[in-house]
Amino acid sequence: MILLLTITLVYLGLCLFLLSMPKYTRALGREYKPSNHGERARRAGGWLLLGVSLYLASIPLGGVNALVFILGAVTAAGVCLSLGFQSNPKRALLPVLLIIKISMLIAVNRKLVLRCKKRS
Amino acid sequence: MKSGFRQSMAWLHTWTGIVVSWILYFMFVTGTLGYFDSEIDAWMKPELPRNTATVQTALRSAQQHLEHHGQDAKDWRIYLPISRTEPHLLLGYQQKNAEGQLVRVRQQIDAATAEVLQSRATGGGQTLYRMHYRLHYIPTRLAYYFVGVFTLFMLLGLLTGIVVHKKIFKEFFTFRANKGASSWLDGHNLMSVMSLPFHLMITYTGLVMFTFTYMPFVLNASYGFGEEGKKQFFDAYYKNAAPTEASGKPATMLPLTQLYQNASVYLERQGNAQANYAIRIYHPNDVNSVAVFSPELSDASNDGSKLVMSAISGDVLSYQPHYSGVRRVQSVLLELHEGIFANLATRWLYFLSGGMGCVMIATGMVLWTKKRRTKALNNPQGMPFSFKLTEGLNIGTIVGLPAAVAVYFLANRLLPLGLEARAQWEIHCFFITWLMFLLHGMRLTWLSRSHKAWYQQWLCTSVLFLLVPMINGITTQRGLVASMLNADWVYVTFDITNLAAGLVCLFIAQKVKSTSKQVLPVQRGKLHSELTP
Fold first, then answer.
1. Does B531 score more than 50 pLDDT?
2. What sign for the dihedral angle of Cα B260, B261, B267, B273?
3. Can you give the pTM of this predicted structure?
4. Which domains does chain B have, with CATH numbers?
5. How many structural domains is chain A composed of?
6. Interface contact B343-A81, CB threshold 8 A
7. Residue of B173, B174, B341 with shortest CB distance to A65
8. pLDDT digits (tens, 9 = 90+) for A45-93
9. How many CB pairs under 8 A join A and B?
10. Whether B298 and A62 lie within 8 Å, measured CB to CB
11. What is the value of ipTM here, to two decimals?
12. Distance CA B479, CA A89 (A)
C-alpha cells in the first residue's frame, strides 16, 4: 500500500515538473501559465514530493532499495504521464490541477476576506 | 563523418546503433525476461507441486537424503525453499558413479516427504536468462567477447544519444502521436530519457560483470596464464575453497535443525534478521566438518554475508556481514544489474525498465528506415538493397523475437515429454520461429510490402501469445481458472501477462493496419509501380 502511495506521489511530483514548463502549460490554457515565481514553486513542489516519496519508500524497503525503487517509479510514472498528456492533457494532470484550482480559490477567498475585514 | 561535434555524434549514434541493434534487442528481450527467470522456471515445470513444508521439515528431509546418498561427498549444499529463486528444496553433493569416481549431483527434493521430484526436461527461464549474455549455438567464450563488444556499442549509443538530444529536460515529457518520423523520434527519446539511469546502469554493470574476461592480464600478471592459474584466482577471490582441511577422523555432526537454529540466533544477535537460505557443509561427518550459512540478500549492498560454524560443536568460527573493499563495490554493481535483492514491486519496475529498453531499441530501428523511406522510394533504380535488408531484419527481429518467446513457452507444453534432448528442442523451436519471421519479413520487404509484413507478424504473434494460457489450461491441471482457485499467483500472473502481451500485439497489428491505409498517394503510386512488373 505504501509503495502504491509512493508511486502516486512520484506521479504528482512529475505533474508539477510538467506544469512548471510553459511549453506544456500552453496546452492547458492561459490560466495555467506559470509566472517566474510559480515556475520555481512548482519545481520545488516536485522535488519535495519526490523527496517525500523516497522517504516513504525507504520505510518498508530500506534506503538503498528505495532509491532503486524510486528511479523505477519515475520511469513508469513519467511514461504514463507523457502518453496521458499527449492524449488528454487535463485528464492526465487532473489530481494536480484540482489542487492548483483549490489553492487558487483559497487564495482569492483569503484576499476577499482580508478586504472585507479592512472595510469593516 | 560530418563536420561539427554534434553532427559527428549523431552520425555515430545512427550507424553504430543500427549495426548492433538486432543483437542488442535480442539481449534486452531475453535479459528482461530474466528478471522473472525463477517464475518462468516454475511455470515450465507444472508437475512440481507447491512447497508447503516448514524450514525445520525441509532441513530434516535434507539430512535424511544426504545421510543416505551423500556419504562419500566432499561437501553438501542445501538450498532451502524460502526464497523466490528456490521454490523447492535443492540439494547438491558428490556421489560415486559406476567407475567409482565422484561426480556432482543436484536433486530437487520434496521438502515434506524427502522424495526426489521429477519434472519434464526444460530449458526454463534460466536458458532465456543465460542467452542474454551467452547467446546460443556459439562457444561461450566467443559469445562473451561478442556481447562485450555489443555492450560497448550500447554504451557508446547512450553517450552519443545524450549529446545528440539537445533538450533532454525541456522535452522531457514530449510525445507527439501520428506525426510520422517525429512520433518515432519522440517515442525513441521518451523511452531513452525516462529510463536513462537504468540504461546507463545496466550497460555499465554488464561490462563490469565480465571484467576478468575482458581484462585478463591483471589476473595473469599474478596467477599466470592457463586454466589452473585462473582457477586459483577465482578460488581466492570468491573464497570458494573449504575453510578447513578434512582430518580423515570420523565424528558425528550436530543435526542440521540445531545448526540452523544456532546460526539464526547468532545472526539475530548481530542484527541480521534475514533468514538463511543456503547452507554448505564441508567434509561432512569429519572432525573438521564446518557449516557455512548464507543469509538471504536484503539489499544490493549486503551481498557476501557469511557465517562459518563448526558442524560438530556448533561454535561460531567466523562471521562476515558483507563483502568489503573492491569486492563490495563490484558486488553492488552486479547486484544492481541482476536485481536479485529486489522485492516484487521493484522487480516489476526492473522488468518495465527492461521492456522500455527493448522499445527504445525497436523505435530506433524503425526510425532509421522511416527517415530513409522517401529517398528509397524515389530511387530510380528501385529500393536499395541495404534499405530492404535493414527493413527485413527489423521486422523479423522486432516482432520475431517476442513470437519466438511465445513459441518457446508453447513448445514446453506441446513437445512430447519423452522426446530426446527435449530442452534443446525447446530452444530450437525458439530460433526456428525467429528465422521464419526473418524470412517472412525479408520476402515481403523485397516485394515492397513491408506494411503487410508488419501487420501479419504482429497478428501472428498476438495469436501465439493468446494461445499460451489456452494450451496451458488444456495440457495441464494448472490452467488460469484452476490456478486462481488454488491461489497459485505465479501461474495466474504468468497466464495474465501472456494474455496482456497478446492483446498489446493485437492492438499494434490494428494500428499498423489503420496507418497502412493512410499511406501518401505518392508513396502508394510508387509502391504500385514497383509491384507491377
1. no
2. positive
3. 0.89
4. 1-47+120-241+342-367 (no CATH), 55-118 (3.10.450), 242-338 (no CATH), 378-533 (no CATH)
5. 1
6. no
7. B341
8. 999 999 999 999 999 888 888 999 999 999 999 999 999 988 888 888 8
9. 73
10. yes
11. 0.82
12. 41
